[in-house]
């Protein structure tokens, strides 16, 4: 999976298609991401010592294939590519549309 926590993404499939948000958490073993403000579900929660119980709205995971990273230059969805940095020799992520460096 090419996504990291903090990446700005746009949803490209499903009921929340077109919504944008930041990645809160990545679930690498399941190939899913949790995006802020997207795929809100209601969860019934029992009261604990610090919190009251009731129906709580939380973000649910989305499959990574249903989101696309936002290009910093064009502000549209794009794919992620990889290349090596010529100065340091490290592998870096780039956007396919504008060849901008991510991170």
List keywords for this structure.
single chain; 103 residues; mainly beta; 6-stranded antiparallel β-sheet; elongated
Explain what the structure shows.
The chain is mainly β and 103 residues long. 0% of the residues lie in helices and 45% in strands. The protein has no helices and ten strands. It has a six-stranded antiparallel beta sheet with strand order 6-3-2-1-7-8, with no helix packed on it. A two-stranded antiparallel ribbon has the order 4-5. A two-stranded antiparallel sheet has the order 9-10. The mean pLDDT is 95.
Give a nutshell description of this structure:
The chain is an all-beta fold and 103 residues long. The chain is built from no helices and 10 strands.
Task: Lay out the secondary structure.
Blueprint: E1 8-11, E2 20-27, E3 32-35, E4 40-45, E5 54-59, E6 62-63, E7 67-70, E8 77-78, E9 80-84, E10 91-95
Antiparallel strand pairs: 1-2, 1-7, 2-3, 3-6, 4-5, 7-8, 9-10
Side-by-side strand order of the widest sheet: 6-3-2-1-7-8
Helices and strands, in order, run as: EEEEEEEEEE
Termini separation comes to 15 Å
The Cα radius of gyration reads: 17 Å
β-strand percent reads 35-45%
Strand tally is 10
How many DSSP helices? 0
Shape call: elongated
Average pLDDT rating? 95
Helix content: under 10%
Secondary structure category: mainly beta
Please describe the biggest sheet, giving its number of strands, its sense, and whether it closes into a barrel: 6 strands, antiparallel
- The poorly predicted ranges are none
